[in-house]
């Protein structure tokens, strides 16, 4: 651009110089032309034009061109190049790399089937499964030990025979622990002389036993009272576990005697913490009138029960005075003890 301006400027100067040289050459040519030239000479249109031509407007414009040249040299493309270099593809690639599919994969791995499996594995039936078939009294050998020729023992023996037992009555004077061998159930009557079971002679007998005599429970440590364990002038008991099979549907206060008096009553025990109490004296829950210990449980003195042992409240000479509810409770307790739980 500068070169063009310089060439233009040089051309203008050259034209000016040529114009000047032509005017100086006219006087040298003959006098005939002098008058004519004088009329035209005063109009030198070219010389006045020369200064105007010499006014270089282009040089004034020349600075603008240099100013514009830096503008053209402003490399906007390089400025754009960094933007182009900021390729969003890598960012998109990372975003694309953050695939949601892996996140979904763990959710898919969380299979609900394993949680359902334990529910399906929870067997509702195992509870009844351990139940053993109820032992029938039919043909089972029962040994009844009591005072010789006691009328109430004969009465009870006949009732037990009606349940299906094969009953043997043994006088207490002939009784020893060894004599119990071969029997399925032992019945210790209230008529028995307590000294026959003193000192825990029955502690190693692993045969289910029903005690009507409170002393027998005391000597094993299954009750904490030995003497004076009777409640007189009462004819009822309180069922405290009406849901138990021994209760047989009875609940609340149940009359077990038809009548009562100062010498009529029922016996009771004070069992340990592992005993199961079914009935108590009327209005007194501390005095257990029907209770039992399961096989393997322990007395408060540490004695471990070898077979199920139970206690029933019946007193002497009450066979005629006992209500049907009272006999029903005895039948149920005998059959329950036979199961030997």
Give the key terms.
alpha/beta; Rossmann fold; 9-stranded mixed sheet; two-stranded antiparallel sheet; 11 helices; 16% strand; signal
How would you describe what is shown here?
Keywords: Signal. Residues 1-21 form the signal peptide. Residues 51-66, 78-124 have a biased composition (Low complexity). The chain is α/β, with parallel strands linked by helices and 341 residues long. The chain has a domain at 141-338: Rossmann fold (3-Layer(aba) Sandwich). The chain has helices at residues 2-25, 34-40, 46-54, 57-73, 76-85, 88-97, 100-109, 113-121, 151-162, 214-219, 324-338, and strands at residues 141-146, 166-171, 185-188, 209-211, 230-232, 236-239, 252-255, 265-267, 276-281, 284-293, 309-312. It has a nine-stranded mixed sheet. Strands 5-8 form a two-stranded antiparallel sheet. The radius of gyration is 66 Å and the shape is rod-shaped. Residues 23-111 have low confidence and may be disordered.
């Amino acid at each position: 651009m500068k070169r063009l301006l310089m060439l233009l400027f040089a051309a203008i100067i050259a034209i000016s110089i040529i114009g000047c040289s032509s005017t100086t050459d006219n006087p040298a040519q003959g006098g005939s032309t002098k008058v004519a030239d004088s009329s035209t000479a005063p109009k030198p249109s070219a010389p006045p034009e020369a200064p105007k031509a010499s006014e270089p407007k282009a040089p004034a414009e020349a600075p603008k061109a240099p100013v514009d040249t830096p503008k053209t040299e402003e490399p906007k493309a390089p400025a754009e190049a960094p933007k182009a270099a900021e390729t969003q593809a890598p960012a998109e690639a990372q975003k694309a790399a953050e695939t949601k599919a892996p996140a979904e994969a763990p959710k898919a791995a969380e299979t609900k089937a394993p949680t359902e499996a334990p529910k399906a594995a929870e067997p509702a039936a195992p509870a009844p499964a351990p139940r053993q078939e109820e032992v029938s009294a039919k043909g089972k050998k029962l040994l009844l030990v009591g005072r010789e020729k006691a009328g109430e023992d004969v009465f009870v023996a006949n009732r037990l025979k009606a349940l299906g037992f094969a009953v043997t009555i043994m006088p207490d004077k002939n009784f020893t622990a060894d004599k119990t061998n071969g029997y399925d159930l032992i019945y210790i009557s209230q008529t028995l002389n307590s000294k026959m079971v003193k000192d825990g002679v029955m502690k190693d007998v692993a045969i289910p036993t029903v005690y009507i005599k409170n002393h027998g429970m005391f000597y094993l440590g299954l009750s904490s009272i030995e003497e004076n364990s009777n409640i007189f002038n009462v004819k009822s008991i309180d069922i405290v576990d009406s849901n138990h099979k021994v209760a047989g549907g009875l609940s609340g206060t149940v009359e077990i005697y038809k009548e009562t008096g100062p010498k009529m009553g029922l016996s009771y025990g004070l069992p340990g913490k592992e005993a199961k109490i079914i009935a108590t004296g009327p209005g007194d829950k501390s005095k257990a009138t029907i209770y039992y210990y399961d096989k393997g449980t322990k007395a408060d003195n540490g004695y471990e029960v070898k077979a199920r042992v139970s206690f029933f409240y019946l007193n002497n000479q009450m066979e005629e005075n006992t209500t049907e509810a009272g006999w029903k409770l005895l039948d149920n307790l005998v059959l329950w003890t036979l199961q030997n739980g």
